[in-house]
Amino acid sequence: MAKDKLTAKQQQILSFLQEFIQEYGIPPTVREIQRSLGLSSTSVVDYNLKQLEEKGYITRNKNISRGISLPFKKVEENVTTIPVVGVIAAGSPIEVPEDLSDPAVWADTIEVNNSLLNLKSDGLFALRVKGHSMVDALIDDGDLIIMRHANTAENGETVAVWLEKEKATTLKKFYHEGDRIRLQPANITMQPIYVSPDDIQIQGKLVAVIRQISK
DNA sequence: GGTAAAATCAAATCGAACGT
DNA sequence: ACGTTCGATTTGATTTTACC
Q1: Residue A65's domain spans which residues?
Q2: pLDDT of residue A174
Q3: What is the DSSP secondary structure assignment for residue A63, as one 8-state letter?
Q4: A207 CB closer than 7 A to any strand C atom
Q5: Mean pLDDT throughout A178-186?
Q6: Residues above pLDDT 90, as percent of chain A
Q7: CATH number at residue A151
Q8: Where are the alpha helices (DSSP H) in A25-85?
Q9: Residue A67, CB, less than 7 Å from strand C?
Q10: Are the C-beta atoms of A173 and A156 separated by less than 8 Å?
Q11: Which superkingdom, per the lineage (predicted)?
């Protein structure tokens, strides 16, 4: 696996590093990191920096002040990093977090080589599918779906929809029929849901499906 | 058999000293 | 001023033990 998991603290340090370098052009000192995280010892910072270094997130120059550097952007030019923000399932309540830029809400991320998918990278997020309501659209339990943020949809598009009454998000095909909306499961055994446009909020459109067949 | 309490072990943190 | 190291301490998770 490409990515080792980071602890919350390491995430904090990493994003602080990124912001600091972004702002001042130079990396912060150990003590500045310490202060910003409210720690009482620099050794904690050192400890976590070592962890980060081992996992390949940073590089450190020994003997030099401000010797931390980020190995040029984990995200290389031809790779798009997409946050996996949660699980989507017909019927059960799932929040799609608003602030996708906050790493804290990411369950995980996936990296997709741009040559595999013809994508604009902005507004993308991914969800793990739970349930079988979309089997006839080649989406089944356990699949990873890549979505793009959107507030509107055309008829026939597959969208993630927030159902105001159920307080849930679900994946369905979208059809606007007169003054109501039909949310059609792509599963012959399941019935469509009819809702008023006021009761739903479109979260995003389906962009791609990733299915793992075996390990 | 099931579980709460106790023991154990590793990871994380601290505070201070030391090195450049 | 800044980075590094080290022993002691705390915290958290895991395993073992003891008891009903």
Answers
A1: 8-69
A2: 92
A3: T
A4: no
A5: 88
A6: 3
A7: 2.10.109.10
A8: 30-37, 42-54
A9: yes
A10: yes
A11: Bacteria
CATH (domain of A30): 1.10.10.10
Tell whether A111 and A23 lie within a shared domain.
Answer: no
Cβ partners under 8 Å of residue A12, min gap 6: A37
Strand partners, A60: A68
Average pLDDT, rounded, for chain A: 76
Residue A121 belongs to some domain of the structure:
yes
Number of domains in chain A: 2
Measure, in angstroms, how far nucleotide B15 C1' is from residue A42 CA: 10
A21 touches strand C (CB under 7 A): no
Q: Does A172 participate in catalysis according to the annotation?
A: yes
Percentage of chain A lying above the pLDDT 70 cut: 75
Residue closest to A82 by CA, chosen among A119, A56, A129, A130: A119
Q: Please give the full DSSP string across A96-112, using - where no structure is assigned.
A: --S-TT-GGG-SEEEEE
pTM beyond 0.70: the answer is no
Q: Among A69, A93, A121, which residue terminates a domain?
A: A69
What single string gives the DSSP state of each residue in A167-186?
TEEEEEEEEEETTEEEEE-S
